[in-house]
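ugh ok fine here u go
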Amino acid sequence: MKILTASDIHADKNAVKKLANKAAREKADLVILAGDLTYFDMDWKGMIGPFLEKKKQVLFVPGNHDSLGTAAVLVKKYDIKNLQDYSVIIDDVGFFGCGGANIGLNFTDEDDFFETLYRGFRYIKNAKKKVMVTHLHPSGSMVEKKGGFEGSEAIRKAIETFKPDVHIFGHIHETEGLEEKIDNTVSICTGKKGKIVEV
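structure:
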């Protein structure tokens, strides 16, 4: 499965159009958006439509700039799945996630991170491949060290406990594109330019 991942678009309509064209050009099977579609919850229009116009299925988690109310509007208006609320299995690949961060409009604490990821994982645990999506990065990661912002111990624990094949996240703009292995999980920081991931 070929996935276009992106994050931290922050209401940039031109970036969304470029990403939608990239998804079509690369023949992506799926688009995953790892949060911060808006800038402090403003201007969500135009963040999803271009992908749907290219006939691409979209999954997302909200970021620290996206309130749960805005996430609910996106789900209802565009009939897409928020992985914080619903896990999904597509062609034997299971997707689960949790949005938010340790700052911002969508503040998520450590207990909520792990509980939400645990709840989502239970529904996809028998899938052949597993993809975990968060907005925030794990603690002790290269992104934490290079970006200088504290990651989540709960997300790190979820990687070590649930052992997803791939972990997709955003949040730290400066480390976009950085990949590392945590145990056997490939952990990938995505951003506004987008990254193709094959699972």
